[in-house]
Amino acid sequence: MRPIRLPEPPTQTMGVPEIFAAGAYSVIRRAVVIGNGYPGSENQCVGLVRALGLSDKHVLYRVTRPRGGINEWLHWLPVSVHKKLEYVIRQIFGYSRLLSAARGEKPVCHPLENGGNVGLSSVLEADVRQIVTMARETYEKDGPLLVVASGRDTISIASSIKRLASDNVFVVQIQHPRVHLNRFDLVITPRHDYYPLTPEGQEKIPQFLRRWITPCEPPDGHVVLTTGALHQIDSAALRSAASAWHEEFAPLPKPLVVVNVGGPTGCCRYGSDLAKQLTAHLLNVLVSCGSIRISFSMRTPEKVSKIIIKELGNNPKVHIWDGEEPNPHLGHLAWADAFVVTADSISLISEACSTGKPVYVVGAERCTWKFTDFHKSLRERGVVRPFTGSEDMSDSWSYPPLNDTAEAASRVHEALAERGWKLRP
Question: Can you list the GO cellular component terms from the UniProt entry (predicted)?
Fold first, then answer.
């Protein structure tokens, strides 16, 4: 079997210091990451920043929404509108409690903010004016500012920063923003985001709705298309994780099969039926496994995890992570001989497929819309196989690992060069 060549981390090059070679104001030495509080989105930003060599020179800002109570029904609103409406609701409930107290009535608690009593002020908030001022005032000393954002709630923030400080920043938006792409310097998005423009996608959209389904136009020159999600996994990360988790994973019987269970999404719906299917298949392949490690995500429904724990929790070959720190995810990626992943999580599948090890997907037949396009592309590349329960898990197979993050970083370098800017060496 040919050895698997894993993605390498960025390497530094020797030569003339950039401040002399390219001019004082053309070298990017720092970055701002704008996240939405969801690990799947922020991990993509940090992964790109890491691949660009700025992992030790970035600051994380977050666009936060009010959570709890009625707020869970208001996430379809723009963030600014949601916050204003939440403020009005709080004022109304505050006035109601004041009247109730005057009447001697017992107040009723209405949880509206993050963490109940923890307000939005406890979170580092992404402020357009603050970031723009910082980019302008530090430009002469520190050079341009790289801004990397991901997630629907970050779109207005990132585009506003580019509009107000276009001479001082380079703005990268990860995932298709569903707005005019010229509001950003570069957009990095998976190919399946353009599924509505494919013949298969067009067939599923009624004619009168096609003009309203985004994206409406094919990608232009400043769109970078990836196969999956960006992440922080490369050969250096895997070597480090292999060393850190050696004591726990090295003694385990081989082959070690890692099972990652996500949770249902709008494009991949399932419940206890998939849990029963997964446990049945795992019991079928158990004879060819040395060890099985199972992890649930924050999105895994309790009814799914309960079925899996009930059926497999007492098996001596199976260990189920209890959710307590430290999280063994990186250790799993480094030490696993094969992966079984539920079809809903593009991030988990993308990370597993960056290792070059066998990846089996369960539940892809339940996926719809652009998720079907994602899974189809992976199968056609020979990167994943469906998990049927008839596999011999000791059989190994490989493929060229997905290298989306490094390839996207290379395109960022090219786009910066066209503008006359460079990243620090």
Answer: mitochondrial outer membrane
Q: Beta strands of 227-374 (E only): which ranges?
A: 256-261, 291-296, 318-320, 338-342, 359-362
Phi, psi at residue 54, to the nearest 5°? -115, 25
Q: Write the Ramachandran bin of 371: left for phi over 0, alpha for psi from -120 to 50, otherwise beta.
A: alpha
Res 262: pLDDT: 96
- Percent with pLDDT over 70 in the chain: 86
In 3D space, the residue among 419, 350, 343 whose CA is nearest the CA of residue 169 turns out to be 419
- How many of the other CB atoms lie within 10 Å of CB of 404? 26
Q: Which residue has the tokens 């307590």?
A: 324
Give me the residues paired with residue 34 across strands: 61, 149
Query: What DSSP string runs through 169-186?
Result: EEEEEES--SS-GGGSSE
pTM, to two decimals: 0.86
Comparing CA positions, the residue from 18, 36, 17 lying closest to residue 27 is 18
Token pair for residue 14?
């020797």
C-alpha 222/C-alpha 250 separation (Å) is 45
State how beta strands 291-296 and 256-261 pair: parallel
Minimal CA–CA distance to 233: which of 44, 24, 422, 42? Answer: 44
Angle subtended by helix axes 346-353 and 39-51, to nearest 10: 30
Instruction: Say what the alpha-carbon torsion angle 155, 159, 164, 168 is, to the nearest 10 degrees.
Output: 110
Q: For residue 140, what is the enclosing H or E element?
A: helix 139-142
All structural domains of the chain, each given as residue ranges with its CATH number in brackets, are: 27-63+126-227+406-423 (3.40.50), 235-401 (3.40.50.2000)
Tens digit of each residue's pLDDT (9 = 90 or more) over 300-346:
999 999 999 999 999 999 999 999 999 999 999 999 999 999 999 99
For residue 50, how many other CB atoms are within 10 A of its CB? 23
